[in-house]
Every structure is written in structure tokens, then in C-alpha cells.
Specification:
Helix 1 runs antiparallel to helix 3. The protein has one domain: Gcn5-related N-acetyltransferase (GNAT) (Aminopeptidase, 3-Layer(aba) Sandwich), CATH 3.40.630.30. Helices cover about 30% and strands about 30% of the residues. By secondary structure, it is α+β, with helices and mostly antiparallel strands. The two termini are about 20 Å apart. Strands 1, 2, 3, 4, 5, 6, 7, 8 and 9 form a 9-stranded mixed sheet that branches.
Length: about 180
């Protein structure tokens, strides 16, 4: 799918492919220190990226957005089910989601493309893909840092609801989920 963003740039959304390893490595390692501190579903080293791209089947969908030059400008993951730490926190808050229809979401957008509409357009694309597979709930992968105001506004704008907070890695975080 191809869309024009607020900045008049055209980007395409698709699933990550084996051939994207080099571009993904470059994308992740070009994120600012601040963005890297907020997005950490896996290490950024070459061995990890190569392994991910060589083993794309499994329980995690890896979406990318690419610009006209085929450079990755956004990378978003959706894992089937929930991680044990997230599940435990949700259960402590008496929130019990059917994991057969729950996805765990981890988005990132390149610093230069933030506020251009790439995150919103890609989220809408992913949401449609998930709805077509029967997914009913989307939880944030490890929550969102309370100091990440831009991300918090993004999530609330798209209907995510805050259900609790927790302390992790020296930072206050919020658990949020979306009912699709």
C-alpha cells in the first residue's frame, strides 16, 4: 500500500522481507539515542537483524514503511499474544484479554519522519490487517514511557486506553491497550 504523507512524501507499507536486512540494520542504528531508548523489542546488532530477516515466519509480524529510495522510515512489530510480564501486570489490574485474539504492538518511526503522518498512516494500515485476521485487542509491548508525551498522545488519539502504570528500567511507564 502506498500513501502520501502530510509532508507530501510518498511511502509504501509492507511486511519485512529477507532482503531488507541491511536496510533494517541501517534504520535501527540511525535512530537517535532518545528514540533507541524508547524502542527496544530486540537488539540492534547485525547478527540479530540477520537472524530476524532469515526467520520471518513465526508469531511476530514485522511491518516496514519505505520511502521512494526504498529506505526504511518506520518499523513496527505485532506479536501474537502477550509477553508474560505484560500479562502479569494486566492480570494484577483485573484485565484479562483473550490471547488468541490479542496482539502486542511495538512501533518506531525514524526521527526525521516523526510528525509527518507516517506513524498514523502505518498504524491504520496495520490495524486493518489485524482486523482482517480476527485480532480484537492490541497491547503496547512493554507499555509506553510516561515521559514520551508524543507517543502517549499518538496512542490516545488512536483509541488506546491507559489501564495502569509500572516502574521499569528506572522509568515510569504506562500500560495501554486498544480494543479493535
Amino acid at each position: 500500500m502506498t500513501v502520501e504523507l502530510k509532508n507530501k512524501q510518498t511511502v509504501s507499507f509492507r511486511l519485512l522481507q529477507k532482503e531488507d536486512a541491511q536496510a533494517l540494520y541501517k534504520y535501527l542504528n540511525n535512530l537517535s539515542a532518545e528514540s533507541r531508548s524508547r524502542f527496544g523489542p530486540h537488539p540492534y546488532d547485525w547478527q540479530t537483524i540477520e537472524n530476524i530477516c532469515n526467520h520471518l515466519s513465526g508469531d511476530t509480524l514485522r511491518f516496514i514503511a519505505v520511502d521512494r529510495e526504498h529506505q526504511i522510515i518506520a518499523y513496527m512489530l505485532v506479536k501474537n499474544g502477550m509477553f508474560e510480564a505484560d500479562r502479569s501486570r494486566y492480570h494484577q489490574l483485573n484485565v484479562f484479554l483473550d490471547e488468541n485474539v490479542t496482539g502486542t504492538y511495538a512501533p518506531s518511526v525514524a526521527d526525521a519522519w516523526q510528525k509527518a503522518g507516517a506513524g498514523t498512516a502505518m498504524f491504520k494500515y496495520i490495524k486493518t490487517q489485524l482486523e482482517n485476521t480476527g485480532c480484537k485487542y492490541l497491547v503496547l509491548w512493554g507499555g509506553v514511557q510516561t515521559l514520551n508525551i508524543q507517543a502517549f498522545h499518538f496512542y490516545t488519539k488512536h483509541g488506546f486506553k491507559q489501564i495502569g502504570s509500572f516502574w521499569y528500567d528506572g522509568k515510569d511507564n504506562l500500560d495501554m491497550f486498544l480494543e479493535l
